TrEMBL record:
Source organism: Paenibacillus phyllosphaerae
Protein name per its UniProtKB record: Uncharacterized protein
Amino acid sequence: MSRVKVTIRCNNCGEKFILRGRRDKGKVDTGFKQCLCNNVEDFEVEELAL
Protein backbone atom coordinates (compact mmCIF):
# COMPACT_ATOMS: atom_id res chain seq x y z
CA MET A 1 0.00 0.00 0.00
CA SER A 2 1.25 3.48 -0.85
CA ARG A 3 0.01 6.91 0.23
CA VAL A 4 -1.38 9.32 -2.36
CA LYS A 5 -2.74 12.86 -2.37
CA VAL A 6 -6.14 12.93 -4.08
CA THR A 7 -7.86 16.03 -5.46
CA ILE A 8 -11.59 15.57 -6.07
CA ARG A 9 -13.57 18.24 -7.92
CA CYS A 10 -17.37 18.06 -8.15
CA ASN A 11 -18.57 18.60 -11.71
CA ASN A 12 -22.01 19.77 -10.44
CA CYS A 13 -21.11 22.60 -8.05
CA GLY A 14 -17.33 22.98 -8.51
CA GLU A 15 -16.43 22.23 -4.87
CA LYS A 16 -12.85 20.96 -4.46
CA PHE A 17 -11.67 18.43 -1.87
CA ILE A 18 -8.03 17.56 -1.17
CA LEU A 19 -7.61 14.27 0.69
CA ARG A 20 -4.95 11.70 1.54
CA GLY A 21 -5.63 8.12 0.64
CA ARG A 22 -4.05 4.73 0.20
CA ARG A 23 -3.53 2.90 -3.07
CA ASP A 24 -4.31 -0.79 -2.64
CA LYS A 25 -4.67 -3.29 -5.50
CA GLY A 26 -4.95 -0.54 -8.14
CA LYS A 27 -7.74 1.29 -6.30
CA VAL A 28 -7.51 4.44 -4.15
CA ASP A 29 -9.41 4.58 -0.86
CA THR A 30 -9.98 8.01 0.73
CA GLY A 31 -13.29 7.42 2.51
CA PHE A 32 -14.95 10.11 0.35
CA LYS A 33 -18.68 9.40 -0.14
CA GLN A 34 -20.44 12.46 -1.60
CA CYS A 35 -20.18 16.19 -2.22
CA LEU A 36 -21.93 18.88 -0.17
CA CYS A 37 -24.47 19.22 -3.02
CA ASN A 38 -25.42 15.50 -2.58
CA ASN A 39 -23.62 14.48 -5.79
CA VAL A 40 -22.34 10.89 -5.52
CA GLU A 41 -21.26 10.14 -9.12
CA ASP A 42 -19.95 13.06 -11.21
CA PHE A 43 -16.38 13.83 -10.04
CA GLU A 44 -13.00 14.62 -11.55
CA VAL A 45 -10.28 12.78 -9.60
CA GLU A 46 -6.53 13.50 -9.73
CA GLU A 47 -3.85 11.54 -7.84
CA LEU A 48 -0.31 12.50 -6.78
CA ALA A 49 2.13 10.16 -5.03
CA LEU A 50 3.40 11.32 -1.63
